[in-house]
Fold:
Amino acid sequence: MIAIISSTIYPSTLRTRDGVRSWNTPESRLEQTQKTIQSLVSCGISDIYLADNSGKNWLNATDALLKPAKVYVFNQHQFHNKGISELYLLLNILEFISSNEPIVKISGRYFINKNPFQDAIDYDIQAKIYRHGLFQSSMSTRCYWVKDKAIYENFLEDV
Structure:
């Protein structure tokens, strides 16, 4: 199983129209991401990829602090809608992962205590779904499971 962590440890200091881009300090973001990595390792996941959107703000010494994750730093446009930025980030990291393994995607501010996806083999995607009334729903992007790279790429492109 592969794990992909999405993060922006060193976010832009440019303000959005709503104010600051992040209330968390880079030090706090780094510590949270380290806990994410350790939680994955504790659950037996060792093939960990960190897709980070810090771009030119990235500090090279940070790579060593995130082992055993393989760190890939991207420098792409930061959309006001952070979800759009994350979609492009995840599409970029797919170039570096193998094709036929299940993928757990988790955001760098979260961690798991046990692997909830061990029995997800029969599904293309397993995620928490929120119902908003009778005809609307949304999917949590904090943590979810995808059957393989091809399904993930199709899903991300469709979104």
Remarks:
- DSSP finds four helices and eight strands in the chain.
- The chain has a mean pLDDT of 89.
- Helices lie at 26-42, 62-65, 82-93, 149-158.
